[in-house]
Structures are given as C-alpha cells and as structure tokens.
UniProtKB/TrEMBL annotation:
Record field: transmembrane: 41-61, 73-95, 116-143, 149-171, 178-200, 238-256
PANTHER family referenced in this protein's UniProt entry, alphabetically: NODULATION PROTEIN J (PTHR43229)
Family per similarity comment: Belongs to the ABC-2 integral membrane protein family.
Pfam families: ABC2_membrane
InterPro entries listed in its UniProt record: ABC2_TM (IPR013525), ABC2_TM_bact-type (IPR047817), ABC_2_transport (IPR000412), Nod_factor_ABC_transporter (IPR051784)
Highest taxon of source: Bacteria
Entry membrane topology: Multi-pass membrane protein
Subcellular location: Cell membrane; Membrane
Keywords: Antibiotic resistance, Cell membrane, Membrane, Transmembrane, Transmembrane helix, Transport
Protein name from the UniProt record: Transport permease protein
ABC transmembrane type-2 domain ranges (all copies): 39-259
Length: 259
C-alpha cells in the first residue's frame, strides 16, 4: 500500500534576521569599508608604522635613556587607537550623516543601538589589526615588552571608549567639512603634545601637568608603565581615561543628531 507524500508548505514566512547576525553583518561591512579606503588606511596603519620606524631607527628625537623603541611602541599604539576610534570614526560618521546614510540605516530593521554596536565592533576589529601590525614592526625593531596583558587590554578599551565618545560627539554635532578639519587638527595637535613620540618631560612643569590629563597622554603613559616598566593597572592613567570615556559617551548620547 502506497502513501501520498505530504504537500509542501510554500507559503511565505517573513521574519527579521536575528539582531546579533544583523550587527555582525553591518560590522563586517564597516570593517571592509575602512580597509578598502586608502585615506583611512594611511591614517590607521601607514602613518603609525612610519613614525615608529623613523624615530626608532634614527636619533632625530631625544627620547631619554633606554632603547628608543621601548618608549615609542606604547605611544604609537595609543596613536593607533586615537586614529581609528576618534579621527577615522568622526570623519566617516560625519560624512555618513551628511549624505543621509545614517538616516537610511535608521529606517532598516537594524536598530540604532545595533548600528552603534556594529560601529564599535568594527573599530575594535581595526584596532586589533593595527596592534598586530604595530607590534610586529616594533618586535622587528628590537622591542621587548613585558607586563600584565589584562592591564593593556583595559587601557586600550577605556581609550577606545573615550575617543569613540568624542568622535561621535563631533560627527553628530558639526557639519561634515568642519568635522574633517577639526578631527585632523586634533589628531596633529595630540600627536605633537600628547606624549606619543615627544616625551612630556621636555615641557615646563605646569604645561606638563595639563598635558598629562589628555586622553592620548594618559593612554600612552599607562601603556608605557605596563609594557616598559611592568606595572599593573596604573591608577592615574586609568582614572583619566575613565573620566574621558564617561564624559564623551554621555555627551555623544545627549547631543548626537542622526541627520
């Protein structure tokens, strides 16, 4: 006796893609966009590597006692975080806002919180790539880091939060052209006076005390304390970064405009 196969149910079954999958898909797109963008690649990878190689291999700067690369490598890592989380994100998000990309993304099933999460994941992914490249070059130049890896991760995450907050604040309140100019100006200024490649002890005492409160200075100093001197959870840099992170994210949440 034969049986008739059950009829196939071909009726539509619409449904939203799970939120984690949407976030990962958007994050992957954001990451590819950064890697394929020549200007972004110059900012995030090429400039830090050139600075690390140039000042490690020459005596153009007086970096004090010890190996030059031991001073430079943590500062260049801090610069890499700033270039991605602040400068690159501010410029990219500013032009997305100008051209209505954020407005259109806001109309998709991906919620705004999911979009922010995707951008955050993309920033972290780019920073991981930067850290791998910078550390590989530094090791080739004779760098011998030591210290607590957990302390390094906490410093980098707090630095990312601080720079991301102010990058989004700038992108969400200024015109795209103004964001482009301001973000690059801040990048150059902090590169010059943030203790990244120029030691802060070369500045007068009062000026140095103020510069040490900058987020990039705190990040560079904290990384040096851990990777150069073996400190664990350096208190002052962590506190400075935490204050900047809370302030930046709170201001961005309050004043960011999507269009």
């Amino acid at each position: 006796m034969t049986t008739t196969p059950a009829a196939l149910d071909l009726s539509p079954a619409p449904g939203a893609v799970p939120l984690p999958r949407m976030i990962l898909s958007q994050a992957a797109y954001e990451f590819r966009a950064v890697v394929r963008n020549g200007e972004q690649l110059l900012l995030t990878l090429i400039i830090p590597v050139v600075l690390l190689t140039l000042f490690s291999a020459t005596s153009l700067l007086d970096l004090g006692s010890g190996r030059r690369v031991d001073f430079l490598a943590p500062g260049i890592l801090a610069l890499a975080v700033m270039s991605t989380a602040f400068t690159g994100q501010a410029i990219g998000t500013g032009f997305e806002r100008r051209y209505g990309v954020l407005k259109r993304l806001g109309a998709t099933p991906l919620p705004r919180g999911g979009l922010i999460a995707a951008k955050t994941l993309s920033v972290v992914a780019v920073e991981i790539l930067q850290a791998v490249v910078v550390c590989a070059v530094a090791l080739a130049l004779g760098w011998h880091p030591h210290g607590d890896p957990v302390s390094v991760i906490v410093l980098l995450l707090l630095g990312t939060a601080a720079f991301s907050g102010f990058g989004l604040l700038m992108a969400g309140t200024l015109r795209a052209e103004a964001t482009l100019a301001a973000a690059n100006l801040v990048y150059i200024l902090l590169l010059a006076v943030g203790g990244v490649v120029f030691p802060l002890d070369k500045f007068p005492g009062g000026v140095r005390d103020v510069l040490e409160l900058l987020p990039v200075s705190a990040l560079a100093d904290g990384l040096r304390q851990v990777l150069r001197h073996g400190a664990a959870f350096p208190g002052k840099p962590l506190l400075v970064l935490a204050v900047w992170a809370v302030a930046g994210l709170a201001l961005a949440a309050r004043f960011f405009r999507w269009e």
